[in-house]
């Protein structure tokens, strides 16, 4: 083969299709360990495939060197991605407010099927149930060990994913293959994942969801703040805002810092919030505190919230002191939940960490150590925020690697 792509996910399919489209003479094969392509892609965006975002820039990406993404985004960015999929028959639908871009059908399967059809139509070979166990390079050729067979190739594109969502086939095997060539990996952690926390009356609040500002407090200092839906669960917090905070929260938690997840229920300062509460009490002094909180908080949260702050939910408004109202105001301005852990890779949308980017060229995705060896997508130490950024990185890095392979690899018979 001329080009072997390890992994038939988003980055791998893009790399293979780009290489074959740019240089049709190349023999390109995708080695997919599952019985179908794009298994993880099918689950993205809750099955709707949020494949990019109208709000795009390097600030949405993380890693040891987030600027590594700049050249890829410049060469194949948001607009290029939208046009690329339009040419495959996927019309875009933009979610108002978030800027998230989905296929108009809102079905991930449409994206996977469109990519699969394009690969087949361009003559890319696809090998299913093909797990690469080892790679060696001798006499200018890579030898890939698939267990029962060995395959030789002039170039290899590593698109094996990270460790998140292992049911899709991403089990960290890609790191091992690259490390054998002298590459180094950073610490690997789950990201875009639910955080565990001490939640009072967690069962009664389970399933409650509403958009709030969230602050990440580490050792009593606010280090990040995000806005998005907050979902209370039986053992913690989830939702887009929490997912975006999870990378930094998990890193700091593992370093022994005390982490608080602060949900900002009321977006005014404490004094104005106290004044607002006093006004409500004066207007409806014979109502219970539970009744007085209706309209301020989701109903399932009211009693746990009052109980947490030492307030009897059955007490009449006229029985509540100013000091108690100040406690309620403080809680509304920031209800703190101590972080106790996080869900594992099974529940994570992506991986934080990966192969160090200083071992690869940002202009080509080619290894600085081994000529003809490329790495793209999640296997590298780049991860994005929730909202289509990780898929944009997959498309961008896959495109850059595919174009480089198309230029560098010459087609002739491998003996």
Provide an overview of this structure:
The chain is of the alpha+beta class and 415 residues long. It folds into two domains: 3-189 and 349-408, FAD/NAD(P)-binding domain (3-Layer(bba) Sandwich), CATH 3.50.50; 194-343, no CATH class. 32% of the residues lie in helices and 22% in strands. Strand 14 (209-218) and strand 15 (221-232) form a beta hairpin. Helix 1 (10-22) runs parallel beside helix 13 and helix 9 (270-283) packs across helix 12. The N and C termini lie close together (10 Å). The relative contact order is 0.20.
SSE topology:
Blueprint lengths: L2 E4 L3 H13 L5 E4 L12 H4 L4 E2 L7 E2 L7 H6 L2 H10 L4 E3 L5 E4 L4 H14 L3 E3 L6 E5 L2 E5 L4 E4 L1 E4 L14 H7 L9 E3 L3 E3 L4 H4 L3 E10 L2 E12 L3 E3 L1 H15 L4 E6 L5 H14 L5 H4 L6 H10 L13 H12 L1 E8 L7 E3 L20 E3 L7 E2 L4 H20 L7
Parallel strand pairs: 1-2, 1-11, 2-7, 11-20
Antiparallel strand pairs: 3-6, 4-21, 5-6, 8-9, 9-10, 12-19, 13-16, 13-18, 14-15, 14-17, 15-16, 17-18
Helix pairs in contact: 1-5, 1-13, 9-12
Query: Count of DSSP E strands?
Result: 21
Helix content: 25-40%
Strand content: 15-25%
Q: Kindly state the mean pLDDT as a whole number?
A: 94
Rg on CA atoms, Å: 25 Å
Name the CATH superfamily assignment of the largest domain: FAD/NAD(P)-binding domain
Order of neighbouring strands in the sheet with most strands: 13-16-15-14-17-18
Distance between the terminal alpha carbons, to the nearest Å? 10 Å
CATH topology of the largest domain: FAD/NAD(P)-binding domain
Integer count of domains: 2
Sheet/helix structural class: alpha+beta
Form type:
elongated
Output the CATH class name of the largest domain.
Answer: Alpha Beta
């Amino acid at each position: 083969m001329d080009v072997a792509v390890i992994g038939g996910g988003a980055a791998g399919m893009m790399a293979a299709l780009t290489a074959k489209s740019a240089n049709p003479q190349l023999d390109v094969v995708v080695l997919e360990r599952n019985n179908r392509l794009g298994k993880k892609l099918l689950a993205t965006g809750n099955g709707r495939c949020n494949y990019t975002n109208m709000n795009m820039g390097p600030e949405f990406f993380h890693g040891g060197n987030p600027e590594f993404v700049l050249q890829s985004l410049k060469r194949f960015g948001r607009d290029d991605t939208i046009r690329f999929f339009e040419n495959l028959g996927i019309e875009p639908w933009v979610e108002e407010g978030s800027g998230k871009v989905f296929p108009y059908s809102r079905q991930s399967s449409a994206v996977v099927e469109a990519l699969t059809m394009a690969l087949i139509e361009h003559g890319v070979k696809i090998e299913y149930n093909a797990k690469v166990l080892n790679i060696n390079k001798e006499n200018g050729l890579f030898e890939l060990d698939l267990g029962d067979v060995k395959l030789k190739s002039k170039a290899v594109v590593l698109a094996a994913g990270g460790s998140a969502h292992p049911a899709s086939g991403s089990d960290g095997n890609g790191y091992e293959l690259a490390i054998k060539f002298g590459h180094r990996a950073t610490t690997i952690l789950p990201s875009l994942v639910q955080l565990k926390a001490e939640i009072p009356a967690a069962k009664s609040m389970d399933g409650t969801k509403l958009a709030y500002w969230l602050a990440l407090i580490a050792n009593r200092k606010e280090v990040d703040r995000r806005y998005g839906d907050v979902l209370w669960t039986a053992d913690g917090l989830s939702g887009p805002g929490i997912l975006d905070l999870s990378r930094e929260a998990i890193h700091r938690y593992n370093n022994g810092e005390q982490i608080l997840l602060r949900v900002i229920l009321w977006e005014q300062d404490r004094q104005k919030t106290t004044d607002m509460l006093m006004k409500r009490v004066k207007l409806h002094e014979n109502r219970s505190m539970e009744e007085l909180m209706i309209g301020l908080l989701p109903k399932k949260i009211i009693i746990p919230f009052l109980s947490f702050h030492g307030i009897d939910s059955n007490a009449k408004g006229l029985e509540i002191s100013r000091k108690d109202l100040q406690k309620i105001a403080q809680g509304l301005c920031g209800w703190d939940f101590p972080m106790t852990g996080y869900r594992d890779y099974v529940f994570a949308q992506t991986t934080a960490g990966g192969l160090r980017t200083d071992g690869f060229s940002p202009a080509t995705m080619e290894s600085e150590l081994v000529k003809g060896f490329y790495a793209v997508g999640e296997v590298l130490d780049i991860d994005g925020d929730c909202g289509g950024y990780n898929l944009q990185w997959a498309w961008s890095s896959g495109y850059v690697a595919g174009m480089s392979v198309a230029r560098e690899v010459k087609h002739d018979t491998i003996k």
